[in-house]
Amino acid sequence: MNPVSDKIVFWLLCIPFFSLSIPRMAILDIYVQGKSRTFLKKHKHDISFAKKFLLIGYVSHCKQYIGHAKVFTYYFLFGFALEVLCLLFWLISGPLPSVQLVLEYFVKIKAYLYDIPIFLIFMITTKLGKDKKVTWRWLE
Questions:
Q1: Is the Cβ–Cβ distance between 107 and 12 less than 8 Å?
Q2: Is residue 110 within 8 Å of residue 83, measured between CB atoms?
Q3: Contact call for residues 48 and 62 (beta carbons, < 8 A)
Q4: Does the pTM of the predicted model rise above 0.70?
Q5: Contact of 55 with 76, CB cutoff 8 Å
Q6: At what angle do helices 66-93 and 21-31 cross, to 10 degrees?
Q7: What number of other Cβ atoms are within 10 A of residue 8's Cβ?
Q8: Cα–Cα distance for residue pair 140/133, rounded to 1 Å
Q9: CA 133, 23, 73: angle at the middle one, nearest 5?
Q10: Over the range 106-128, which residues count as b (16 or more CB within 10 Å of their CB) and which as e?
């Protein structure tokens, strides 16, 4: 692999673990607001696996901050679609090296439109809570 490919692999495999988990974490934190632990235990199988994976089921069961949850869901789905598209181009670039340039552009688009903004949003909208855990500023 050439150095460009190493950078692409880093942006395709390492960064999405964090950048896709940030909106997921925000939606799950919004989902548990106003619900007791026993309620969550009783109703954890009410949402199908596909809806849990795409976070759609959590948003439909939110009681508070529904607007925030919808925005984070759309942002998660946008990032997930970009990630799948980039991985497909990466797989195609093995047999067809001419696709490498297109892959680099998609990775840059993903980085500038999704990864960097989500990290900035996370830094701005979170704080260290009283119990030394990271909490969202709007969930006070």
A1: yes
A2: yes
A3: no
A4: yes
A5: yes
A6: 150
A7: 22
A8: 13
A9: 145
A10: bbeebbeebbeebeebbeeebee
What string of DSSP letters covers the chain? Answer: --HHHHHHHIIIIIHHHHHTHHHHHHHHHHHTTT--HHHHHHTTTSS-HHHHHTTHHHHHT--S-HHHHHHHHHHHHHHHHHHHHHHHHHHHHTT-GGGHHHHHHHHHHHIIIIIHHHHHHHHHHEEE-TTSSEEEGGG-
One-letter amino acid at 80 equals F
Q: What is the pLDDT along the chain (140 residues), one digit of tens a residue?
A: 454 566 667 767 777 788 888 999 899 888 888 888 888 888 878 888 888 888 888 888 888 888 888 999 999 999 999 888 888 888 888 788 788 888 888 888 888 889 899 999 999 988 887 777 778 887 76
Residue with tokens 């460009």: 4
In the chain, the amino acid numbered 52 is K
Q: The tokens of 31 are what?
A: 């989902």
